[in-house]
Amino acid sequence: MTKLRTGGRILVDNLIAQRCDRIFTVPGESFLPVLDALVDAPSIDLVVCRQEGGVGFMAEADGKMTHRPGIAFVTRGPGATNASIGVHVAMQDSTPMILFVGDVARDARDREGFQEVDFPAFFGPLCKWAAQIESAARIPEYVARAYATAISGRPGPVVLALPEDMLEEEAEAVDRPAVARPIQACDPAVLNTLFDKLRAAKSPIAIVGGADWDKETGEAFALFAMRSGLPVAVAFRRQDALPNDCPVYAGNLGYGPNPKLIERIRQADLVLAVGTRLGEATTDGYTLISPDHPDQVLIHVHPDPDELNRVYRTDLSICADSTSFARLLAATADETFVGSPSGGEAHAQWLEWSTPQPNGAALDLGLCWGTVGEQLPGDTIICNGAGNFSAWAHRFWRYAAQPSQLAPTAGAMGYGLPAAVAAAIRFPERRVLCVAGDGDFLMNGQELATAAQYGARLLVLLVDNGAYGTIRMHQERRYPRRISGTALANPDFAALARAYHGWAETVETTEQFAPALARALEQPGIAFLHLKTDIERISPALTVSGLRAGK
After folding, report:
1. 229 lies in a domain?
2. Same domain for 347 and 360?
3. Do 255 and 399 fall into the same domain?
């Protein structure tokens, strides 16, 4: 006979059953029974953050790294709406995540009680499934379903509302065992059709990388690509999909890609897309590869059948998880796949593109990233939010491990620092680097306090050009010299970092950077380099004066 437990206890017991080992939260009185139950759950690490936006981003980043749902708890009203940005990122990035929201008591619902929100209605468009648990006895069912939904098909976020009186309610409940992602093996017979199309193509290219991609997937796909000479590009912010030193790696798509890679894709007669949704950023607004792609054969491999033929007409759709597909691809392709020079050519073009050249700026960020590559290990985890500052990292850092890129395909500012905290806690033995812009950093800079509290060892490179640089770039392109709403008055960021018990220096020239970085890498905790740059060099390839001249 099962014994009576509070809803809070049942919930924590079932999180343990699902192998949850970490929760990110800002505490709220609406889920006090859960906090109480966590006192007796030493296997779960409770990470207390400073704002719910940081909670959501940390849980999303944790889900990216582990391929298990990142778990977040926030309170109703302001807590939930603050955390919604993390849910949005998890949805667009196809990341497994579960957000638990403390809610008003059941008997107070629909009275516009204190901080009341209709959470299934609010979160429904932002996630895979949003629901409210009405009975403590059904908590095991809801938690198991939440995990199954978050990790199956195209992974994504789930939101569960928890009425506070339900969490206090005692009930008998049968805990459910851990759920696993359903195996979606590739049908071997379909590979014959795929191989026929590849052999018939004169200029094929692959675009890879998705939420279900892991180290084994990258190694298997790289083996096949090297054997066939197939050039491999990676989707937007999926640059760790395979080691960048792979001799057929062609570079990344998204914002500011190599023009030679863009031309190669335009000229391709066959595109093999594996794991990627071929989203707006990857395809430059659905123009690099159009939804109907005349004169191009599209083979699309994705674990979710709803994604296939959703936007793009496909010539061959394969519903399979990326790992089983890549493993079978590498095992099945034989000596009839004679190596082509196109993969090697594409890699040489990427090497040229990703090698920084002096640009004459007092603080040359390209050369700085060259120094970063020399001083930091290849498995460093690079974390960033949104902004032109990230273009230097995307272009000049060479990813060598998976996972090693935490960056939102949703383009959310303020993501980098919370992601870096989550990474430093998850992988304390690895180097973690947060690169942030001045506008980007201050959206979640308070999470330096979380880093300090939990002893996270991380390095922050803050690029300060006194502007919302990406918007300024678009502004100068469309309305030259008419600056409005993009200038920033910034604090002394190095002093701010020191206030959070970090070590910090300010760097204003290229010559100062290498010794400052070396000193930063000697620090045991937070190390912070404030890089003061000029708005003139607004991206690796663009200047303000050039934009004003229409270049």
Report:
1. yes
2. no
3. no
The whole-angstrom separation of Cα 440 and Cα 400 is 26
For residue range 301-343, what is the model confidence (pLDDT) as tens digits? 999 999 999 999 999 999 999 999 999 999 887 655 656 789 9
User: What CATH number corresponds to the domain at position 334?
Assistant: 3.40.50.1220
Residue 106: pLDDT band with limits 50, 70, 90: confident
> How high does pLDDT run on average in the chain?
94
DSSP string, 32-94: HHHHHHHTT-TTSEEEE-SSHHHHHHHHHHHHHHHSS-EEEEE-TTHHHHHHHHHHHHHHHTT
Identify the domain containing residue 424 by its residue range: 355-548
Tell me: the pLDDT tens digits for 120-174? Answer: 999 999 999 999 999 999 999 999 999 999 999 999 999 999 999 999 999 999 9
Any idea what the CATH number is for the domain that residue 531 is in? 3.40.50.970
Sign of the torsion formed by the C-alpha atoms of 513, 519, 520 and 522 = positive
Locus of tokens 């379903």: 145
> By three-state DSSP, how is residue 536 classified?
coil
> Mean pLDDT, to the nearest integer, of 345-363?
95
Say whether both 69 and 112 belong to one domain. yes
Residues 310 and 405 in one domain: no
Q: Determine the Cα–Cα distance for residues 8 and 435; give it in Å rounded to an integer.
A: 38
